[in-house]
């Protein structure tokens, strides 16, 4: 026992307020990371940007992608965009003839070509009928493009729209997508209400169709590209993913999911890791003009064969006027089509980066472990060791994060654990400063903080108690409160001094009774009093003394009420009596000096305190001014008239509690009238708990015919109401008779 006390004191001394604050900070930062507000996201994203700037994707070797650029040179040569579809067809024919593996369009042909012969025939003036007829007999430009697409392997681009433009043609083909995993992929994907597709004549002959829509981050950078999305209630692959599906001959895309979201997308021989929303972290290489070929050169068929043969070809634009320039972590200005090329090259070279779905768990675990190490060991370190330990933890976090990126291309954030640990360090430094200031102040004025001379004397005899904290003791706790004091206060709304005088008038005798019976007044809460027994001094009969104090308090209130009633009669004003409710409970509490650097109070905390407060609140429900817990009643049963009231379940406690009323002292306990009422109450409770509803009601009726039955009238009405409810809706199997308190 002595060793246990020493251990408790050591723990209280070593595990102080600063550690508790740091634990709260640790939990708070974990909650912040899970919530992941935009500032936290951006800090993490900037870290990942730095990694790519330091170590971008290696672009050495043969480049698998060529970009056909509708650049300013091409526009100057062939005119403004959009070009006639025949010119696009010529481009496809030349690229196919030069050995392109697949051709992807980062543009959409959503409307019929305005230069289709039949449209020209209807729009041109001064044409003779024969010419108009001849024009209408010519094949449309869209059909010519369709024929060129049919003879090649072309993936058309489509785009998501912020609103529905028109009904989708369900006869046009869609890429098949299936989900493999614990969750349906649809709820995790980015969604666009509308979908802009190509004209049907070319859409239906293409080898594939994919969205080239790219989402920017809050800061305008493009770090992640959605590989799969929802558009107008259809799951659609991205342009780059569809190109990969076409060249690998994959009939259906498989989307792997778990409870956290999308994990990867699987093709034949390839699995592409994604974030939970199906986005691929693009592993960028610096912008490289060498993979660009002017569309003008393709149309002139002057491109070296090595630039096209065996390549994946993307057709897009870098022309400033066409507004398809993006910002990435490695480049301030990169044509949007090159981002698709970067995705293709990353996947084909196996140089993808990813943030695993378990990354959040790793970051939280790292912050927890390092945070706990700091909380445990930091207060015991000197300044030099503290700085060295901080530098070591920072180096470990940064180094581990970089190791995962450099070796495995995993994005593991070190900023969150570093911020969390830094906050804990700063808190300890601040707490150390505050503690020194507080100790100096306590030495000068600690004894002036306490009002009780007994407590001051004990503190003088035991200086080790002059600390925040305390000890566990078995105690009896009292809460008392004046019933209807709000109504009484309203009668003094024009006489505040009179209200203060009234409070002092009844609080003074109640306080005197508590002190006389060896109790300690903890605090006043308006008209309420909190007190306890068996601390700071030992009291072997603290339960009995507390019960005696409670009865004397009622007697003192009666004296005050009689005097007030006479004063009201003499003064001709309304008399409102003071009625006090008292709750007593015995149990283990933590008692000691509690508070802040500026103000302390010798007080008690614990479940037993909460129950005493609840019991005081129930005095108005059961009709008895003094209600006590089972341990108090057991200790005082030989000296007071104890009456069992109920078997209750208090919110926050797992075990129910039997509660009792104190009806008087020994003279009441031995009276015949009390014994009859006690026996009737026992019979009623026995029938009630055994579900004999009628037997309980019969006992209540007999009780009402007994002497002093009005004492139990509230109790009888309370059980009558419960029984009627149970007759309509019986309690469940295993019901023990416990009643859950709904009021405080």
Automatic annotation (TrEMBL):
The chain crosses the membrane at residues 358-379, 386-408, 414-434. Residues 694-726 form the HTH cro/C1-type domain. Signal peptide: none annotated. Keywords: Cell membrane, Membrane, Transmembrane, Transmembrane helix. The keyword Kinase does not apply. One of its GO terms (molecular function) is adenylate cyclase activity. It holds the Pfam family CHASE2. GO terms for biological process: cAMP biosynthetic process; intracellular signal transduction. The keyword Ubl conjugation does not apply. Its main location: other. GO terms for cellular component: cell envelope. It is found in: Cell envelope. Residues 476-616 form the Guanylate cyclase domain. Belongs to the adenylyl cyclase class-3 family. This is Adenylate/guanylate cyclase domain-containing protein.
